[in-house]
Every structure is written in structure tokens, then in C-alpha cells.
Amino acid sequence: MKTGGQLIVDALEANGVNRVFCVPGESYLAVLDALHDSKIETVVCRQEGGAAMMADCHGRLTGQPGICFVTRGPGATNASPGIHIARQDSIPMILFIGQIAQKAREREAFQEVDYRAFFGPIAKWATEIEDAARIPEILTRAFSVATSGRPGPVVIALPEDMLTSLVEAPAALPSAPVETRPGEAELAQLETLLAKAKRPVAILGGTRWGEQATADMKEIARNWSLPVGVEFRRQMLFDHLDQNYAGDVGIGINPKLGDYIKGSDLVLLVGGRFGEMPSSDYTLLKSPYPDQQLVHIHPDTSELGRVYRSTLAINASPAAFAQAFASRKPKAAPAWAEQTKQLHANYLSWSTPPQTGPGAVQMGPIVAYLNETLPEDAILTNGAGNYATWVHRFYKFRRYGTQGAPTSGSMGYGTPAAVAAKALYPNRTVVAFAGDGCFMMNGQEFATAVQYNLPIIVIVVNNGIYGTIRMHQEREYPGRVSGTSLHNPDFAALARAYGGHGETVEKTADFIPAFERARAAGKPALIEIKLDPEAITPSRTLSDIRDKR
Q1: Residue 348, class by beta-carbon neighbours within 10 Å (0-12 exposed, 13-18 middle, 19+ buried)?
Q2: Is 502 in the same domain as 371?
Q3: 257 FRET partner, CA 20 to 30 A, in 121, 153, 246, 435?
């Protein structure tokens, strides 16, 4: 006989979970008690949104579900941004929510929420366990749902009385992973399409990749001289210095790459959905009927034909596809090899950071320094805002598992994601980028980094505004500033108050010594960069945008 709380922890251990992120609540004390005697590390966070984003980043970097526990009502609703991120980004994650006792249902009891209704539209599966004896069954299913097909978040509500009930249940077993592989006929057809193509391009995206899969994809690119782009915030899927890399297919795409994709005759879309942002509002590939021949490779049949009608649809995970196609080679030298070289040259030119701009701090030399000094396995995380352009456009990602950034465009992600990344890989350098508005949304998780001695480095780009919104505002309503100005704390002093290391950078020359001191501090560090608000993009100032309306 075991309690529901013990059965939950047993099932987590059976599925290889070694870390959970949580904000504690009285509604799941039975689980917290069972965790006390387990080998699972419990990371106590400061806000449920940060905890859920940590779980998302864990799933993003490992391919295994990140686990998060929160309490009922406001605890659950606070976690909802993390669920939305995991859903849009196809990240495996399981959120457990303490729930009111079953006897109090339908009375609007204290913090009562119908979680199936609340999370149903944004989770891959939302359910509630009413009988503790079914915990092994439902958790096995949860791990399977979270990782199979198109991965995503599962939400499980845990009634308080269910968790304390004593029941007999079978011993938990790990879920069996489900793989989807391409057939011989599909691979042969792809070879035929490539043999006839004159201007092909591969675009990588989605999840269910890994180090071997990206190595196999590099082999495919070299065998076929394929130019390779990566979808928005999926930069870690291909080495940026590889001769076949063509660039980021995301917000602010290199116009030369955008024109090439529009004029291509064959697009290999591997793993991604190619949604609104990477498709430039469905102009690079027209929906539902692209101008190009489209080969869409995706592990979930529900995504094939959902937005685009493809010439060839292959139901396979990126890893299985890359493994199967890596050994195939063209019968003749591809005619587009010189185009591929030119696209890579275009990328190198486009991704060279500018050295000048308004104000005393120049972000170009800072990113150039990080490119030179950070090891290839360094992990970079960020949330959303114009500051992120400096990372996405100019930083050179070299390896898989080095990026934590939400394709959903959620603010507040970088700091909690960095905490999760450093907990996973304590010997690797982890750098979080955040804007001043972005940092203040989940910056309190810097205290979590201090508590668990996780020496992350957070770079706060402070321009005193909600930059992206101000940019749009100046374009649409020039000179009519409303709702986008910020008054900020002394971020370096805040870091020191938390028990970390703090630095302030007010001119470009200050950054390198500040970064070296932060790296040598041996504890969580924050570097505040005071950026002129005019430096809103690498190529245009706010005044440019306002005056050229």
C-alpha cells in the first residue's frame, strides 16, 4: 500500500527523472514528502512562471520531459506562460498541479480551477487523476504523449485527497519511446526530386533532434552541397561556420537568403512547422500552396498538410530521417554547389557585427568578443525583445544543445532557462541575455541561481524602454510615446543584494574586464549594459524609424 504522492515519485524515478522544479504548495504536500526520501533533486523556485520555464529549458536541451510542480489556482495560472512556450516550441514537459479535494468540487472552493478547461487549448494533454491506483498508467501515458509525435506539454491535476489515499498499484515502468522512420519509397522519391532540382534549400526546425542527428544532417548537406537555413531560434541545429550554412530563417532574415528561398525550386523542411515568424508571414512559403516543390519531414502526421500542401510528406522524426538519408549520395555533382558557397559568404557578411552606433556602448564589439571567447559548448539563453537580435544575427552557434530561446517570443525566459541549463551542465558556461523589461519579469530566479550555487552570467541590456514595442510605436504613431517607458533599479546592485556578483557597463571598453570579473567570481553574476535607446536595431535608430514613417 502506497500513497498517491509516493506513487507519483515512483513513476518519475522509473522514467529517469532526476530533477524537478517547483514552487511548494499545501495542495501537494504528499508529493513533497515523498520527494524527501527519493534521489530526485527538488529545485525550489521563486515564481511558478520561472519554474515552468526552467522545466521547458530542461526538456529543450535534453529531449526528455522537464518536470514542474505548482500549487492550485494562482500557482497554476502563474505557470501558464511556460505551458504556452512548450506548446508552441514543441518541447516535452509535464506540469503537475495540486488540486482541491474531490469532495469540494463544483463549489468554487478555495483556489478551484477546472484545469482541463483552462489548459486544454494550450497543452498537448490536460487531465486529472481521480484514482491513485491509476497513477502508473496515467504517468506512463503522460511521458509518451509529451515525447511522441510533435512533443509538447502535459498538465496533470492532483486532487489533494487522492495524493494522501493509500492504494495498491503496479510498479511503475518507464514509457516506451515511439519513433517514426522514413520508408524506402519516400527516400528514393526525395533522391529523384533532388536530382532534378536546380536551386534547392534545406530549412531545419522543430525538436526531436540530438547531437548525432545534427551530425547526420551536416553529412547530408555536404553530400548534396545543400544550403542549410535554420528556423527562428533553432540556431543550434547547424554549425554556423560550416560551408553549407546559409543563415537564420527568422525575424529580420537576410534579404539575400529570403530571395533565394522564394526563388528556390525545392524546399526540404526538416522537423519544423515553418509558422508565421520563420515563413515571414507565409511569404517565403505560401500557404496552402507553395510556389516551390516542398518536402516536409515531420514526426507528427497532424502537422503534415496542416498549413502547406507538400510535394512529398515524410512522417519521420528529424533524427530518424537524418540517420536514414545520411548515407545516400548524388550520382553526379550537384549543379548548385557554387550557389551554396555564395549563400554562406552572404551569411558571413550579414552576420559581421557593426562596430559603431549611437551612444557610448556598442553591442557589435561585445558580441564579437563573446564569439571569440566563449567555448563552443557554451549555452546561451534569452527571452524576447530587440536586444535578442544581437544574439540571433551575430553570435555563431557551433553545436547542438547550446541555445535556450522561446520561438513563441515570450519575455522573461532567459534567466530561469539559464538556471535550468546550469543545473543540467554545471561545467559548461551559461550566459543569459535579457532586456530590462524582460529581466524584470522573472529576474527573481537569479535568487534561485544563488541558492543552488549555479554561477550563470546574466547580461541585462538596459535601454529604459520596452524596445520592440517602442520601435513599432514610432513606426505607426511617430512621436506619440505611450506605455513603453521604464524606470529601472540598479541591476548590478540588485544582483549583489541577492548574493551574486554585479557589474555595470557604461562604455564599450568596460565590457571585457566586467565579463572576465563575472566569469571569475565563481557565483551567479549580472552585467548591466546601459544601452542608448536610439540603438534599437543594428542598422536603424529610433529617430530613423520615426523620421522615415
Answers
A1: middle
A2: yes
A3: 435
**Is 362 in the same domain as 448?**
yes
374 is a domain residue: yes
- Sequence-distant (6+) residues with CB within 8 A of 108 are none
Any domain includes 130: yes
| Omega cis (within 30) before 174 | no
Residue 245: C-alpha distances to residues 205, 224, 242, 338 (Å): 14, 13, 6, 13
Q: Does residue 435 sit within a domain?
A: yes
Sign, CA torsion 532/383/470/250: positive
Cell 520592440 identifies what position? 468
What is the amino acid identity at position 224? W
CA of 302: how far to CAs of 274, 306, 315, in Å? 14, 7, 10
Bridging pattern class, strands 457-462 and 501-505: unpaired
Q: 540 is in which domain, residue-wise?
A: 352-547
| CATH code of the domain covering residue 426 | 3.40.50.970
**Model confidence pLDDT, tens digit, residues 273-324:** 999 999 999 999 999 999 999 999 999 999 999 999 999 999 999 999 999 9
Instruction: Tell me the C-alpha distance between 227 and 246, whole Å.
Output: 6
3-state secondary structure of 143: helix
Q: Is the pLDDT of residue 549 over 60?
A: no
For 414-435, the pLDDT digits (tens) are: 999 999 999 999 999 999 999 9
